[in-house]
Amino acid sequence: MKNMSGMWKKLFRVDLTPTRCSSRGISSSIYDVVISGGGMVGAAAAAALGTGSLLKEKKVLWLESSAQRSYVPPSGYSNRVSALSPASKSFLQDLGAWSIIEDFGRVQPVSCMHVWDGCSEASITFSQPQNLAYIVENDMTLHALDTIAASSEVELAYETTAVEYITTDPYSTSVKLSTGDTVSAGLVIGADGFKSLARQSAGINTLSWGYDQVGVVATLKLGSQEGDNTTAWQRFLPTGPIAVLPISSDSSSLVWSTNPSHAKSLLSLTPESFVDAVNRALHEESSKDGVVSLFTHQFRKILSSLLATDATNQSSPKLPPTVLEVQEGSRASFPYGMMHADKYVAPRLALVGDACHRMHPLAGQGVNAGFGDVECLVRTLTAAISIGSEIGRLYSLTGYETERQRHVVSIIAGVDGLYRLYSNNWTPAVLIRSIGLMGVNALPFIKKSLMNHAQS
Ligand SMILES: Cc1cc2nc3c(=O)[nH]c(=O)nc-3n(C[C@H](O)[C@H](O)[C@H](O)COP(=O)(O)OP(=O)(O)OC[C@H]3O[C@@H](n4cnc5c(N)ncnc54)[C@H](O)[C@@H]3O)c2cc1C
Question: What is the pLDDT of residues 440-449, one digit of tens each?
Answer without folding.
Answer: 777 777 777 7
